[in-house]
Amino acid sequence: LLSPDGELGVTIFEEMTTLAISTGAINLGQGFPDEDGPAEIKAAAQDAIAAGANQYAPGKGIPALREAVAAHQQRFYGLAPHPDTEILITTGATEAIAATLLALVQPGDEVLTFEPFYDSYGAIIGMAGARHVTAPLLAPDFLPDLAALEDAFSNRTKVVLLNNPHNPTGAVFPEHVLAKIVELAAKYGAVIVSDEVYEHLTFGVPHIPITSLPGAAERTITISSAGKTFSFTGWKIGWLSGPEHLVAAVRTVKQFLTYSSGTPFQSAIAVGLALPDEFYTGIAQTLRHKRDILAEGLRAAGFGVYNPRGTYFINVDTAPLGIRDSVDLARRLPGLVGVAAIPVPVFCHPEGAERTRSLLRFAFCKKIDVLEEAAARLATLK
Ligand code: PMP
Ligand code: GLN
User: Where is the Aminotransferase class I/classII large domain (predicted)?
Assistant: First the structure.
């Protein structure tokens, strides 16, 4: 039996949110916004419920949402996935990741991720019985060393799973890094799985979907989610796209995980995806401003700050404050100053955990006065 005290125990997000609630701390740990997304998307969900869209959706997703995902990819990236065969709606990106790995990976295969890695990657790779190989992302820019990346590939590499923009570091991979990943995936016959849930949250740098690079599309599954772009993390609507044979394999697994995903929320997210460009630029601008406010506050509080180019997370180094162990600090911080954060080593294997031992992640998808209050509280640590 899996035990709450075992390796897969309770996720760090649940642990830190529970601690934030019990201590009354400001929760800059788990990444969720403290304001809901656009009113018209909410109204669309309410309308769909009132109109009776309350029974199972088709397993691959309602046509309106699959068409909206295709139109969104055309509008932003000039891509043209077929809504019937090359797109699958999932219960959040989390299910997309799980179904994809379970579909593609056999026991003994290797899955390569960057490190630090989002927590569900390690858990699902383990459940699939695969070996988890990592390539480090190193401070200050958290981009991979390309020679080390090549060393991490082998003939057993079945999947290279990347996350771009990257949680927890906030890195946005430039084109030459993506091109190297495509080159190595082709050389070793690996499928590329690209988790792009933060695709619209970049600050002054473009998001490049890896599937848009030459030679990538035929071997790439791209994953995204409504949670981050539209600030409805609780609705758990995600999607993936890729070549027909790969999407069909993932659809086969999805049938037996959830069968289908929340019907009225799918209608509402179809409305969201069609929002004008200003919505998308607006959310990035707002978050950039929030990033700058929190970064300034964290610097003033004495942390070493790594300014992210994407996502809604900032990493800091606690070493300048004389604090070496961010896991220990994260457990004490809510009681100490009334702020919760996530320690970066939990996104790593032991060697990576040692390398990131003094790194702590703060979420800045919060109201400005909340960020200012959190910064003021953190300043009392000095
Ligand atoms: N991938 C990454 C990198 C994430 O940060 C998250 C958290 N939102 C997810 C996947 C899961 O997304 P969802 O909530 O849509 O399942
Ligand atoms: N993606 C969110 C984060 O990184 C958390 C999602 C979750 O709790 N699983 O903070």
Answer: 25-378
Which of the ligands is closest to the CA of residue 228?
A: 1
Q: What is the pLDDT of residues 77-120, one digit of tens each?
A: 999 999 999 999 999 999 999 999 999 999 999 999 999 999 99
Centroid of ligand 2 to alpha carbon of 14 (angstroms)? 9
Query: Looking at domain 39-273, which CATH architecture does it have?
Result: 3-Layer(aba) Sandwich (3.40)
> Of 227, 225, 273, 266, nearest to 76 (Cα)?
273
Task: Tell if the pTM clears 0.95, that is, is over it.
Answer: yes
Instruction: With cut-offs at 50, 70 and 90, classify the pLDDT of residue 7.
Output: confident
Q: Of all protein residues, whose CA lies closest to atom 1 belonging to ligand 2? A: 31
Best probe residue, ligand 2, of 8, 21, 32 (max atoms within 8 Å of C-beta): 32
Q: Note the residue count of the chain.
A: 382
Arithmetic mean of pLDDT, 213-239: 98
The listed CATH number (1.50.10.10, 2.40.100.10, 3.40.50.300, 3.90.1150.10) that belongs to domain 12-30+278-381: 3.90.1150.10
The DSSP result for 97-163, as a single string, is HHHHHHHH--TT-EEEEEES--HHHHHHHHHTT-EEEEEEEETTTTEE-HHHHHHH--TTEEEEEEE
